[in-house]
Amino acid sequence: MTNVRRARVDDLPEVVALIAEHAVYEKADPPAKGLAERLGFLLFGEPEPRLIGLVAELREGGPLVGYATCSAEVSTWDGEEYLHMDCLYLRDGHRGLGIGELLMDAVRGEARRLGLGQVQWQTPVWNDGAIRFYGRIGATSKDKRRFFLPVR
After folding, report:
1. To the nearest whole number, what is the mean pLDDT of the chain?
2. Which of 110, 102, 14 is nearest to 64 (CA)?
3. Taking the model in full, what pTM does it have?
4. What are phi and psi of 26, to 5 degrees?
5. pLDDT by residue (tens digit) across 105-134?
6. CA 3 to each of CA 22, 57, 62, 144: distance values in angstroms, whole numbers, following the listed order
7. pLDDT above 90 covers what percent of the chain?
8. 29-34 long-range contacts, CB within 8 A, separation 24+
9. Dihedral angle at the C-alpha atoms of 28, 33, 35, 41, nearest 10 degrees?
10. Residue 54 CB neighbour total at 10 angstroms
Protein backbone atom coordinates (compact mmCIF):
# COMPACT_ATOMS: atom_id res chain seq x y z
CA MET A 1 0.00 0.00 0.00
CA THR A 2 1.48 3.34 -1.06
CA ASN A 3 2.08 5.91 1.65
CA VAL A 4 2.41 9.66 0.93
CA ARG A 5 3.95 11.79 3.66
CA ARG A 6 6.08 14.84 4.32
CA ALA A 7 9.75 14.34 3.48
CA ARG A 8 12.11 13.83 6.41
CA VAL A 9 15.77 14.77 6.71
CA ASP A 10 16.83 11.14 6.30
CA ASP A 11 14.97 11.04 2.94
CA LEU A 12 17.24 13.70 1.46
CA PRO A 13 19.67 11.39 -0.40
CA GLU A 14 16.79 9.48 -1.99
CA VAL A 15 14.93 12.70 -2.86
CA VAL A 16 18.07 14.06 -4.54
CA ALA A 17 18.31 10.79 -6.53
CA LEU A 18 14.65 11.22 -7.59
CA ILE A 19 15.40 14.79 -8.66
CA ALA A 20 18.31 13.58 -10.78
CA GLU A 21 16.02 10.98 -12.43
CA HIS A 22 13.42 13.70 -12.97
CA ALA A 23 16.01 15.86 -14.75
CA VAL A 24 16.89 12.98 -17.08
CA TYR A 25 13.18 12.32 -17.73
CA GLU A 26 12.60 15.99 -18.64
CA LYS A 27 15.76 16.10 -20.80
CA ALA A 28 17.23 18.78 -18.52
CA ASP A 29 20.69 19.40 -17.16
CA PRO A 30 21.56 17.34 -14.08
CA PRO A 31 21.20 19.01 -10.69
CA ALA A 32 24.11 21.25 -9.71
CA LYS A 33 26.61 20.06 -7.11
CA GLY A 34 25.60 20.84 -3.55
CA LEU A 35 21.89 20.26 -4.20
CA ALA A 36 21.40 18.16 -1.06
CA GLU A 37 22.71 20.95 1.17
CA ARG A 38 20.65 23.68 -0.52
CA LEU A 39 17.55 21.51 -0.63
CA GLY A 40 18.00 20.48 3.00
CA PHE A 41 17.87 24.12 4.07
CA LEU A 42 14.80 24.82 1.91
CA LEU A 43 12.93 21.73 3.13
CA PHE A 44 13.96 21.67 6.79
CA GLY A 45 15.28 25.15 7.63
CA GLU A 46 14.20 27.06 10.69
CA PRO A 47 11.96 28.71 11.72
CA GLU A 48 9.72 27.73 8.79
CA PRO A 49 10.91 25.82 5.71
CA ARG A 50 10.46 27.64 2.40
CA LEU A 51 9.65 24.45 0.48
CA ILE A 52 7.18 21.67 1.24
CA GLY A 53 8.43 18.24 0.22
CA LEU A 54 6.13 15.24 -0.12
CA VAL A 55 7.26 11.71 -0.87
CA ALA A 56 5.52 8.53 -1.98
CA GLU A 57 6.78 5.24 -0.62
CA LEU A 58 5.48 1.83 -1.66
CA ARG A 59 4.76 0.98 1.96
CA GLU A 60 5.59 2.68 5.23
CA GLY A 61 9.37 2.67 5.46
CA GLY A 62 9.70 1.30 1.92
CA PRO A 63 11.61 2.78 -1.01
CA LEU A 64 10.59 6.17 -2.34
CA VAL A 65 8.97 6.02 -5.77
CA GLY A 66 7.99 9.66 -6.23
CA TYR A 67 7.97 13.16 -4.85
CA ALA A 68 6.28 16.53 -5.10
CA THR A 69 7.52 19.91 -3.93
CA CYS A 70 5.53 23.09 -3.50
CA SER A 71 5.60 26.54 -1.91
CA ALA A 72 3.25 29.46 -1.39
CA GLU A 73 3.45 32.17 -4.07
CA VAL A 74 1.49 35.28 -5.07
CA SER A 75 -0.48 36.09 -8.22
CA THR A 76 -0.35 39.82 -8.87
CA TRP A 77 -3.21 39.61 -11.38
CA ASP A 78 -5.49 37.85 -8.91
CA GLY A 79 -4.15 39.60 -5.82
CA GLU A 80 -4.11 36.22 -4.09
CA GLU A 81 -1.69 33.64 -2.85
CA TYR A 82 -1.61 30.15 -4.35
CA LEU A 83 0.41 27.01 -3.88
CA HIS A 84 2.99 26.58 -6.63
CA MET A 85 3.85 22.92 -7.26
CA ASP A 86 7.38 23.04 -8.62
CA CYS A 87 7.82 19.31 -9.17
CA LEU A 88 5.85 16.11 -9.29
CA TYR A 89 7.69 12.99 -10.41
CA LEU A 90 7.13 9.25 -10.26
CA ARG A 91 9.76 6.68 -11.06
CA ASP A 92 9.34 4.69 -14.24
CA GLY A 93 7.12 1.69 -13.59
CA HIS A 94 5.10 3.52 -10.94
CA ARG A 95 3.04 5.76 -13.22
CA GLY A 96 -0.59 4.87 -13.89
CA LEU A 97 -1.01 3.19 -10.49
CA GLY A 98 -2.82 6.02 -8.70
CA ILE A 99 0.31 7.25 -6.90
CA GLY A 100 0.26 10.57 -8.77
CA GLU A 101 -3.28 11.17 -7.55
CA LEU A 102 -2.19 10.44 -3.99
CA LEU A 103 0.61 12.99 -4.32
CA MET A 104 -1.77 15.55 -5.85
CA ASP A 105 -4.24 14.95 -3.00
CA ALA A 106 -1.41 15.64 -0.55
CA VAL A 107 -0.47 18.82 -2.44
CA ARG A 108 -4.11 19.96 -2.29
CA GLY A 109 -4.09 19.17 1.41
CA GLU A 110 -1.09 21.45 1.89
CA ALA A 111 -2.91 24.22 0.01
CA ARG A 112 -5.94 23.79 2.29
CA ARG A 113 -3.68 23.75 5.38
CA LEU A 114 -2.21 27.09 4.28
CA GLY A 115 -5.63 28.55 3.44
CA LEU A 116 -4.83 28.77 -0.28
CA GLY A 117 -7.57 28.30 -2.84
CA GLN A 118 -5.53 27.16 -5.83
CA VAL A 119 -2.54 25.06 -6.89
CA GLN A 120 -0.58 26.04 -10.01
CA TRP A 121 2.23 24.26 -11.87
CA GLN A 122 3.70 23.67 -15.30
CA THR A 123 4.83 20.68 -17.34
CA PRO A 124 6.78 20.38 -20.58
CA VAL A 125 4.58 20.64 -23.66
CA TRP A 126 5.83 17.26 -24.90
CA ASN A 127 4.81 15.41 -21.69
CA ASP A 128 1.54 14.01 -23.03
CA GLY A 129 1.14 11.51 -20.19
CA ALA A 130 1.33 14.23 -17.54
CA ILE A 131 -0.99 16.50 -19.53
CA ARG A 132 -3.59 13.71 -19.79
CA PHE A 133 -3.22 12.96 -16.07
CA TYR A 134 -3.68 16.60 -15.07
CA GLY A 135 -6.73 16.92 -17.30
CA ARG A 136 -8.20 13.73 -15.81
CA ILE A 137 -7.97 15.16 -12.28
CA GLY A 138 -9.77 18.36 -13.36
CA ALA A 139 -6.88 20.77 -13.99
CA THR A 140 -6.96 23.34 -16.76
CA SER A 141 -3.99 24.99 -18.48
CA LYS A 142 -2.79 28.26 -19.96
CA ASP A 143 -0.20 28.50 -22.72
CA LYS A 144 2.86 30.40 -21.54
CA ARG A 145 6.60 30.13 -21.93
CA ARG A 146 8.90 30.09 -18.95
CA PHE A 147 11.99 32.32 -19.05
CA PHE A 148 15.15 32.22 -16.95
CA LEU A 149 17.38 35.24 -16.34
CA PRO A 150 20.61 34.80 -14.41
CA VAL A 151 21.33 37.53 -11.85
CA ARG A 152 24.86 36.52 -10.84
Report:
1. 94
2. 14
3. 0.90
4. -90, 10
5. 999 999 999 999 999 999 988 999 999 999
6. 20, 5, 9, 34
7. 83
8. none
9. -150
10. 24
